[in-house]
Amino acid sequence: MRETGGRGVRADVRLSHEEIRRYGRHLILPEVGLEGQMKLKSASILLVGAGGLGSPLALYLAAAGIGKIGIVDFDVVDESNLQRQVLHSTPDVGRPKLDSAKDRIHAVNPNVEVELFSTRLTSENALGILGAYDVVADGTDNFPTRYLVNDACVLLRKPNVYGSIFRFEGQVSVFSAPGGPCYRCLYEDPPPPGLVPSCAEGGVLGVLPGIIGTIQAAETVKLILGIGEPLVGRLLLLDALTMKTRELKLRRNPECPVCGEHPAITELIDYEAFCGITPPDAETEAGEYAISVTDVREKLDRGENLFLLDVREPQEYQIANLGGHLIPLNDLPRRVHELDSSRDIVVYCHSGMRSGKAVQFLKQLGFRKVKNLVGGIDAWAAVIDHDMPRY
Fold first, then answer.
1. Once rounded to an integer, what is the mean pLDDT over residues 316-331?
2. Which spans in the chain are helix H?
3. Quick check: 216 and 53 in contact, CB under 8 A?
4. Against a cut of 0.70, is the pTM above it?
């Protein structure tokens, strides 16, 4: 077993009789003991996100006796979250995730101090928020925030317990530990915009974030205690369909632009621009190339001959659809010959994101009578057809 240093114990930290009873199964572990439990109570962990990964992280770190847990999130609980985000429950739908997270953490362990940051993590606030914590646990689901968290942790010399999930696959590692690699050593550049779909577009097995987030929690506890062999310089890959794991060895890249010998990045940058994410084309969001669900409803009621193009996946079409022609977005380039540019085409997806990309693609090919259904089929269900299932 390789010692990892761990954190110290604050002079003012003591365990009450109630806490000794609560943490008894920790205290009899030689690797933890009374001193180790006081290290956990002295520690502060920042969770970036209170969603699928943040849920098991928050619950198990609270149960373990971490003294202070900070959470950064600005979202509200939606019914679609409940399939995997066990930090929240049905009565919490519509509440800010931070509120339900704090209630749930204190229900597990009232001794934990919970600090809430109801904001989007940005280049302007990241150093100030992350700087007050011992370890950062990354539960984000997008590349700009992932690179932001990595760079901030490197600049602050904070360990970054990384996890990511997609469909049936997950990854875990510990970045920015002393002598170890950072996220950019593994992925120096982000994938092209739109190449990797989000969980909202591609789906995720509900139990997967529970598995990955719990591993992140274990790595965090090991870092605090200074025990075992953390996933520093190792990337753990899990395929939940086959329940097989692989491990990739990682090395710190001396040419890394942020943690290398001569770093080019010495301050936080514009991560939206770095990841190639630009504001949506205004014409596909409003104006000439956009159309609202109410306008489509009126045109259909008048008997106008609209060609409805659904760019979602077949399994989504089975849940709910407006009819029309199904061509998944990734298939559109090779099936564009199925479309008649002289027709009035309304493109739709779940929320308007994929259809917006499809409209931009068709515009480049010379389509001029094509419009993006703003808000997608979800807006149609919310505004026009209340009997249509939403997902």
1. 95
2. 17-22, 24-27, 33-42, 54-64, 97-108, 126-130, 143-156, 183-186, 199-202, 208-225, 271-274, 282-285, 293-301, 314-319, 332-335, 353-364, 376-383
3. yes
4. yes
**What CATH number matches the domain at 17-274, 3.60.130.10, 3.30.70.20, 3.40.50.720, 3.90.76.10?**
3.40.50.720
How many CA atoms lie within 13 Å of 223's alpha carbon, on the beta-carbon side?
28
* pLDDT tens digit sequence for 103-149: 999 999 999 999 999 999 999 999 999 999 999 999 999 999 999 99
Q: Evaluate whether 303 touches 344 at the Cβ level (below 8 Å).
A: no
The radius of gyration of the chain's CA atoms, rounded to the nearest angstrom, is 24
Domain range 282-383, its CATH number among 3.40.50.300, 3.40.250.10, 3.40.50.150, 1.10.357.10: 3.40.250.10
**Which residues is 173 bridged to in the sheet?**
162
- What number is the average pLDDT over the span 330-352? 95
Q: Which residues are catalytic?
A: 199, 349
Residue 382 CB neighbours (<10 A): 13
Q: How far is CA 76 from CA 80, 100, 356, in A?
A: 11, 9, 25
What angle is formed at CA 151 by the lines to CA 149 and CA 156, rounded to 5 degrees?
Answer: 90
What is the C-alpha to C-alpha distance for residues 196 and 278, in angstroms, rounded to an integer?
Answer: 16
What is the pLDDT at residue 177? Answer: 96
At 201, is the pLDDT very low, low, confident or very high (cuts 50, 70, 90)? confident
| Residue 198 pLDDT class (50, 70, 90 cuts) | confident
